[in-house]
Structures
1.
Amino acid sequence: MTSQHPVSSAQRVHIALGERSYEIVIGSGVLDAEASYGGLPRAAHAMIVTNPVVASLYGEVLAQALKGHYPLVHTVVLPDGEAHKTWESLNLIFDALLSNGCDRNTVLFALGGGVVGDMTGFAAASYMRGVPFVQVPTTLLAQVDSSVGGKTAINHPLGKNMIGAFYQPHRVLCDLDVINSLPGRELSAGLAEVIKYGPIADAAFLDWMEANLDALIARDPAALAFAVRRSCEIKAQVVSQDERESGVRAILNFGHTFGHAIEAGMGYGAWLHGEAVGCGMVMAARLSVALGLVDQTFVERLRRLVERAGLPVVAPVLDAQDNVGRYMALMRVDKKAEAGAIRFVVIDSVGHALVRSAPDEMVADVINVSCQV
Ligand code: NAD
Ligand code: GLY
């Protein structure tokens, strides 16, 4: 049952990475369109990696589509949620691959949100020293961010995404129809990563977000199509310049240094990644003001937008005795930290970001103000 929606109506964004280049296909009906799968690596086995929620919604559609292209189609269902982005879940993928006799002639398909996508990518990077994989993101967050760019990882109890690899997918298939089944809280979490792209790279896109946020919350197809495409274009441009984050790619982590501390400090899964990033962006905007890079109106503007998107803007207290100390300790585990010095993505004009360290007292003030506002 394929091709009700010709994929020619879909839009394509190219990620230019030499021999690792690939396309992001964005549109309605992408999941069951025949053209979505043409030109992918040929293989004896396809392994769909997913979770129970997504499997029940879209597992069969993907399996049917893949049966036209791969002789053997298998599925492994991982436990749902950030708390399961672990070695144990990763091993379930390897167990399924080995017990189904999957050799190097296998393509993995990550069907789900960022948790499934990050784990599947890491499994693909390491299974038999590397097999191809395709991202089929089913959350807004995964469509605009995590499925693109090749960062793959699992969490460690001492730090988020600490174990992983850079490993690019062969294609990203963004079917906009799947956003309709997404719970409202997850839609909001995805909006955080969409909002991010304006301050760091495109002032006009921030204006567009302010004007179109209600349409996005109402899941208007045209608004969603534009938001996903523009986000992917910006991410593609940044990743094409700096695949392994030796420079400019770090700007994609705006809000993430504070955000990762919130996620780890609250216990993975208590705050959604996008919720922590939303609040973290407001904190990073305050730090940008404290560093004299932008004025206070930027904080107010961003805080209003984040709040309108249904995201928290007041930071949680992570430790009643030593809140600042706890934030600092968690942020020192951030991958951007250098010799223990925490580095933050800050904004020096709307549409432009840079990475800077800041005095501990200044960061402490930001944490204190953000936990009270
Ligand atoms: P998620 O993968 O946990 O998915 C959110 C929830 O939505 C899950 O319960 C899932 O089962 C459900 N779901 C997924 N698709 C659905 C659909 N269409 N309808 C109904 N329910 C659906 O969370 P996420 O927000 O997609 O991803 C967060 C993860 O992504 C974090 O682990 C984060 O670290 C990672 N991430 C990675 C990158 C990267 O560059 N690799 C970038 C950003 C975030
Ligand atoms: N989400 C940050 C990055 O891909 O670099």
2.
Amino acid sequence: MSSSANLYREAAANVDAAADDLGLEPTVRDILSSPQHELIVNFPVQRDSGEYVMFQGYRIQHNNVLGPFKGGMRFHPAVDLDEVRALATWMTFKSALVRLPFGGAKGGVAIDPAKHSRSEMERVVRRFTHSLGENIGPGYDIPAPDVGTNAQTMAWMMDTYLNSRGPAERQGARGVVTGKPIEIGGSLGRAEATGKGAAYALRHLYGEYDRSLGDQTVAIQGFGNVGSHGAVALEELGMKVVAVSDATGTVHADRGLNIDALIAHANSASGVAGFSDAETLTTDEFFALDVDVLMPAALEAQITADNVDSIQARVVLEAANGPVTAAAAEKLHAGGVDVVPDILANAGGVIVSYYEWVQNKTQHHWSAGDVDSQLRNTIWDACDRVAARRNGAGSTRRHAAYLEACDLLQSVYELRGIFP
Ligand code: GLU
């Protein structure tokens, strides 16, 4: 079985375990076990050389019982159907857990953005958006950034969508995507939201321990949007970021890395490698660091049966989607390591996406302070509910989070009934 097929199987297994505990109605379990819609589009794009190449894009719409489909667009060479299915499934449970009126979706294209010019990427984004046609829309399915996409990607998606619609449909249609640049309807605080949300979840956890985060050490894998903003937020909470690892290498300093300087370096050098004022480590050494918190903020399946025994951290904060495999999570739990599950730890992004969508709908503008306090309250409310479930059931935080999410989905199906 391919690793992404495995990933999808694991996404479904989390739901099954919660369904068993809750005695979930068999039809609801069946509905949640497979995506509602799976769209594959093949489209040509002209390269700068003049030749045309074909790309394959996906949009998986897992469930929309709570509201419009919602989730990111990933551009990465390893994107395939099963990976996007798993990511779409997680979005449904993430939105349900933090009580957003959204369903779950995810999309992507198997492409390495680093191998294409800006103008080629623009053509890929526009042609992909055009191919999705009526399958996206502000009241139907709302994409956002994910790995390999950013605010500029969303600007091109929005512009393509608006230009393919008549004038009557354009009103309020900026909400077709979230994570946009501020100038065209993005929200203050959206860029920082996922990293900040993870920091708030960690602060809540330490509150449960009745301990302070001051001087606690953290190692971060990934220094893109989530890892870099997460590093800033954790440093603001008084933590020492002692190691950062990305695709270019790992940098480490026991006294703590200077995050502002590391961000400036990573921006100019396209990665953390070569940062002066730090020693380098191998990936294996990075995962084996004796730190208080390990924050995987890159791709899925990074902590697996192969390296889990080397982990010395006391807490694993899943800022990426699916960074710890099920087998590894079990081992960590058995060894007393607290794993803050992805659908809670990285929900900050979609939470502030929701605020952006609301601002687009109402034509109001929220201040950075309003966004931040709402984000914090929403994450802490979910943390409270997960902790309460866990004390009741004595389960892992991941299982408690799925119980919380499935319970809401079950109630909604009960109230609405299953059509027709
Ligand atoms: N791609 C992000 C995630 O995995 C954000 C999704 C969104 O804002 O819709 O949660």
